[in-house]
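Re: that backbone. Tokens:
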């Protein structure tokens, strides 16, 4: 019997594989919460059978071959083909927004393939299973849920809403019953919280970074999220938080002073001297940064913005905002 488990983070995949819960364990780590979304064509190519002549990223690119078990020729199949050919398949989905988006997109991808959907079950993980011993892992596994047509329709609607050119349809999800996906409502709100707010212009992660730097003489990795660290925001990953910190420190009118070297790229990490200097930085808020944190200044009235939130391109002329207190969207 060929059992397939698809997860959205490598730590969970490692724990599942160590516990021997599946013949094949696949991790899909496409990032959807930061930067422009893949086009429909790119997204389809990402999950299609691998084309060695294509330069488009592929879902198998970062999966160790030993995770694939007996499917040595897996590269000749796409994800849907693997789901269809398995005896049983499960999506193990964590609560973080990127994992929720991946669930929506995967269900949308599979929704027209009855052979794939007929094999599929979903497990909504309430907590991380990384590092869990096999016997402990069994206690953390939630019940499997069989996706119905209602699941597929809601997934299609939500994925379409996130890809839309404005956040309106995503915001409208808050007036919808989302209980079919128990962690989705939290994910909807967490992503809306990353839109520029109505006072300072900063999203929730940017605001939390400024709060942590406010006491002064703070090193960069103090503000990165992580286990037992004071930044509890979990929307962005390591590289994305580094880019957010760069934006606050290297804008024409910066909110942060003292960040040495950069930008936060692979080149920086590969230069031991420069990276050590980066980590030794002692950061503080500029006067402007303190005023932004207090809600007395708007960061984007003094700085240019051109970034993506889902399918929405945010610019100074087209700046959608979010009122966190009233949970309302403010159009440009």
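Recovered sequence:
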């Amino acid at each position: 019997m060929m059992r397939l488990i698809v997860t959205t983070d490598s730590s969970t995949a490692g724990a599942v594989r160590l516990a021997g819960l599946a013949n094949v364990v696949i991790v899909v780590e496409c990032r959807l919460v930061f930067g422009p979304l893949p086009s429909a064509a790119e997204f389809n190519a990402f999950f299609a059978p691998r084309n060695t002549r294509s330069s488009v990223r592929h879902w198998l690119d970062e999966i160790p071959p030993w995770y694939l078990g007996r499917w040595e020729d897996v590269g000749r199949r796409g994800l849907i083909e693997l789901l269809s050919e398995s005896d049983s398949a499960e999506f193990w989905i964590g609560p973080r927004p990127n994992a929720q988006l991946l669930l929506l997109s995967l269900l949308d991808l599979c929704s027209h393939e009855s052979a794939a959907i007929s094999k599929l079950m979903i497990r909504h993980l309430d907590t991380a299973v990384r590092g869990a011993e096999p016997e402990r892992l069994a206690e953390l596994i939630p019940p499997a849920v069989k996706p119905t047509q209602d699941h597929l329709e809601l997934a299609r609607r939500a994925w379409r809403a996130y890809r839309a050119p404005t956040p309106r349809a995503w915001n409208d999800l808050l007036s919808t019953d989302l209980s079919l996906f128990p962690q989705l409502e939290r994910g909807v709100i967490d992503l809306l919280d990353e839109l520029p707010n109505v006072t300072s212009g900063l999203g929730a992660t940017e605001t939390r970074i400024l709060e942590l730097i406010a006491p002064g003489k703070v090193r960069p990795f103090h503000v990165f999220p992580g286990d037992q660290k004071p930044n509890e925001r979990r929307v962005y990953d390591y590289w994305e938080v580094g880019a957010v910190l760069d934006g606050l420190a290297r804008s024409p009118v910066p909110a942060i002073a003292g960040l040495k070297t950069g930008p936060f790229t692979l080149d920086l990490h590969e230069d031991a001297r420069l990276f050590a200097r980066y980590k030794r930085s002692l950061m503080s808020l500029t006067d402007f940064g303190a005023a932004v944190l207090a809600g007395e200044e708007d960061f984007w009235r003094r700085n240019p913005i051109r970034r993506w939130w889902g399918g929405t391109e945010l610019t100074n002329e087209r700046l959608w905002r979010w009122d966190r207190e009233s949970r309302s969207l403010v159009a440009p």
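The domain at 3-163 is CATH 3.40.50 (Rossmann fold). The first helix runs from residue 10 to 18.
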